[in-house]
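Throughout our pipeline, every protein is held as a single compact record rather than as scattered files. Nothing more is needed to write down the fold, since each code stands for a local backbone conformation. For reference, a complete record is included directly beneath this paragraph.
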Amino acid sequence: MNHTPRKLIATAAAVGAMLLLTSPQAFGAEPAPNPMTRWIYHEDSSRLAPGANHFRYTEDPALLAGRTAPRELNIVRMDPVAGAVRLETSFGKKAGVAETVRDQLATATPPLAGTNASFASYDRRGDGVASMMFIGLSARDGVINGSSCVNASGPVDANGKYGSVTEGMQATVLQYGFPYISRLKSELTVEVTAEPNGPVLATHVLDDVNRTPGRAMGCARDLDDVNHQKAITYPGTTTATTVFQDPDELIVFNGNYGVATPPKNLDTDPAVTGDDADGTEIVIDQTGRIAAPKAGRGGENVAAGGYALQAIGTGSETWLKANATAGRYLRVVQKVIDVGAPPLKSTQSPTVEAPRPIALDESTDIVSSTHGLISDGVPRTNEDLKTCKRLYDKDNNSVGKVAQRPRLDTDFCRDSRTSIGVDEQGRTLLITITGPRDAAPPATEAAADKTADGAFMWEVRDILAHWGAVDAMNLDGGGSTTMVTHGVRQTGRTDTVLQDDVLQWAERKLGDSVYVGRGGTPLP
């Protein structure tokens, strides 16, 4: 983690702003960087704009050793000092709705480049709404849209329950064109007052943002989640999904959500009972004023600047009914703490320490992940980065996940990868590794696995290190991996869908994306 305070280049957005009005073709080919083993450089790689370059590579066909086709490597390098460019995140028009990367970045003048970002999961709603939830910490323009994950820690008791959790997850703060990578955790509470900005009458911890209460997907948010988890294999799927069923939760929905708040029992699987409670819902307008409680919950469209709160379980529901009464005021308090950096020393006493906060304002975006690749110039070990869902041997035969047998040096990981890094000069590196760009439709899922292709995380780590990255982390990958430049997809489609009972390649709909903005101006 690079914990040196970042230089905020106030003039970067002004320098070269007019140059960005020139068509990208005027910048010509990009000179080849230092050569890399396995990878053949494409001379048509381009300078997208002053401060933004796109480098394209194809795997050397002579080194395939069992692969069906050469992989493709795309690298975008962004330097906010060299041009009027900045790094931002987007979830498209609505945080609660899945969209492809290209749809999220679709404007009359699209960004210079962009990739998929955080992990997200479909919030399995039974009301026809294809809603999303972020698997971990996500923020745009200083507004948190998903809270951080925790991991179980310590021994278990006689009932198999954990007694503690480890907080914090790998995340990247995107601000002023410079990424900052560390372990972050979110702290979310609500405060009730009798009048705007008045003394606090009551407070309560929030469990999460913009998702169905009682059933978190993908990661646990607190100890209750850890101790109420169950593996569910939903109809139409073959892989079990871990569902964290916390029976007592308070969830906030903000103006970014964009879809109606969920009613009870959206997940009709009989093993998922966490969202079955009637619960309570209240609405808070743009001034913070609390409306009268609703009968039941669900169906509210949250206004910009306002909130909706849903509570289930004795503790949360009792608190909400007793304190968030009509006519009072409520505010959401957001905090993000950098748990990967040393705490701040007090100026009053050298023995007093305080958590190191991350400022949340309109300039602050955050995307998260589960795996760091490089920290303060130190690469993580291969053993730490062996994760692979689609493992193939030297004869191109599927051998399952890494966990099912020891990985051999001749094995291949066919998980497409997306990663972000920052070098010593503060330049951002966005990297994708995929299979062929526009392969023929696969006949089977097994054929799709071979075509989509990909890499072990340690392969991506080595590429980032070759490019001088001192901090780097893995982003969502597999069927999510996508890179676009000037609105044009540069990666092979890595997801599959059934269309008229025929398997087809597709671009996956996602929670958010990272993009290199033009002229220092973010998307609307």
User: Anything to note?
Assistant: Confidence is low (pLDDT under 50) at residues 1-26. The CA atoms of residues 73 and 433 lie 5 Å apart. The longest strand covers residues 178-193.
